[in-house]
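Structure (tokenized):
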């Protein structure tokens, strides 16, 4: 994305990797490729080599963690009606419970994600899992409104932190050729987890009660905690961020696990300044790119969450039943996974930026069309499928752009900031739609207005320069 002269990334034939021995000079490891110099030999070899089994399994583990995010987040929406009746709390109170999770996600993304640029990727990932497990268990044992709000806030903190950590990890586990699709696959876990959450809720809540759903979610979190603690490797960037006298040993151990020779020499490791990720993002070289990324993400999430939140109401408002609206919403979720996968597989053929612009533009057009198409159920279901495919296709590949947009030593902080800003869009979108409806505007007018942010995001994407940090 847009950037200044001092930190301008180098170009090379494989997107995302800087050319070794370029005219800008040679480099060692640390500054983590924040300077415009070439990558060290072992890192270049890691990016150029085919992906090893350990790398592929690591991507799979991150996808499962993202699915756990989706299960955790959407479980409360399915359980909310039952919780309201059991605890005798109204819709306003349930709204506070749902808002607490969103607030926690924003806080986690904004303020806890920089830890991953200081202490490595695994430690904050473990911390986020502990918060999610603790928050979900607290929800399962909740006895009053205070417990629900507190537990969802803690869960949201964990989810927000995890989202800002697993995206850098996905980019850093992958080689250069599979980087974009790896990030996209990991983020497809979120809608997949939402689908699983709906299936489990439909089976478990009538049979075992709503608390069982959160006990299962916390148990799955414990499984993921064990996988991260006992098996999941640290990335090259994470090892360098953590630093210390054992850096060379840890790097060589990682290379061996990934089927490569232990080729890190002592003179390749140079001390670097730590705790600088936030300051780096505020430099004249990086600030324009950070602001541009945040603006695009905010605009897109504003449109995305409007349509995802209001589709059931729009369908029931057209005279269809609640079960028919649920069918359309489920179709939107399933098509999101399938469409997101299709867009991700187009990236190597058409280029990342072109695919994202196409998906974001299609999202805006689909939202606008939703307000003017005939209100027949087959047409509305078809539109829900189109909306699901375009929104998720745009979002998962937008994360791939974010993984390239920030220097490695500030990647988690940058992605966390952008996601945190996007959370405000996710809250504003449904609220703004509700305000427009309450003012008496027809759904055609509201849909057209709420399509504008996505189309504006596509225009911004078209105008900025894609960055290719390693």
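Design, position by position:
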């Amino acid at each position: 994305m847009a950037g200044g002269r001092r930190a301008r990334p180098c170009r090379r034939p494989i997107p995302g990797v800087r050319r070794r021995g370029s005219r800008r000079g040679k480099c060692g490891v640390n500054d983590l490729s924040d300077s415009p110099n070439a990558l060290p030999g072992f890192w270049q070899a890691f990016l150029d080599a085919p992906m090893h089994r350990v790398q592929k399994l690591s991507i799979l583990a991150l996808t499962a963690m993202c699915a756990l995010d989706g299960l955790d987040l959407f479980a409360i929406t399915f359980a909310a009606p039952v919780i309201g009746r059991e605890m005798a709390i109204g819709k306003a109170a349930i709204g506070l419970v749902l808002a607490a999770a969103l607030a926690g996600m924003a806080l986690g993304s904004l303020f806890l994600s920089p830890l991953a640029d200081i202490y490595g990727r695994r430690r904050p990932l473990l911390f986020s899992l502990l918060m999610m497990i603790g928050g979900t268990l607290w929800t399962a044992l909740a006895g009053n409104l205070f417990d629900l709000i507190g537990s969802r806030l803690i869960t949201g903190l964990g989810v927000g932190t995890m989202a800002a950590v697993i995206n850098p990890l996905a980019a850093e586990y992958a080689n250069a050729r599979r980087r974009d699709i790896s990030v996209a696959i990991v983020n497809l876990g979120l809608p997949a987890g939402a689908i699983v959450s709906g299936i489990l809720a439909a089976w478990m809540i009538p049979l075992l009660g709503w608390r069982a759903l959160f006990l299962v979610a916390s148990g799955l979190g414990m499984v993921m905690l064990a996988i991260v603690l006992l098996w999941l490797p640290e990335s090259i960037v994470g090892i360098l961020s953590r630093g210390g006298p054992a850096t060379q040993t840890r790097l060589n151990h990682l290379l061996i696990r990934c089927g490569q020779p232990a080729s890190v020499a002592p003179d390749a490791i140079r001390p670097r300044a730590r705790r600088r990720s936030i300051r780096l993002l505020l430099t004249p070289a990086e600030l324009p790119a950070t602001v541009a990324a945040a603006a695009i993400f905010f605009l897109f999430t504003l449109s995305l969450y409007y349509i995802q939140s209001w589709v059931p109401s729009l369908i029931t408002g057209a005279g269809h039943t609640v079960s028919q609206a649920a069918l359309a919403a489920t179709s939107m979720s399933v098509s999101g996974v399938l469409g997101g996968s299709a867009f991700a597989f187009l990236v190597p053929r058409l280029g990342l930026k072109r695919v994202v612009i196409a998906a974001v533009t299609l999202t805006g057009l689909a939202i606008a069309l939703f307000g003017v198409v005939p209100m027949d159920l087959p047409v509305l279901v078809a539109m829900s499928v189109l909306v699901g495919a375009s929104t998720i296709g745009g979002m998962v590949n937008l994360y791939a752009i974010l993984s390239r947009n920030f220097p490695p030593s500030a990647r988690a902080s940058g992605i966390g900031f952008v996601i945190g800003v996007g959370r405000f869009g996710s809250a504003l979108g449904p609220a703004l739609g509700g305000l427009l409806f309450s003012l008496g505007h027809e759904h055609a007018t509201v849909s057209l207005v709420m399509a504008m942010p996505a189309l504006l995001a596509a225009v911004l994407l078209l105008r900025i320069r894609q960055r290719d940090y390693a």
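Reviewer-requested clarification: The chain has two domains: 53-242, 277-463. Confidence is low (pLDDT under 50) at residues 2-31.
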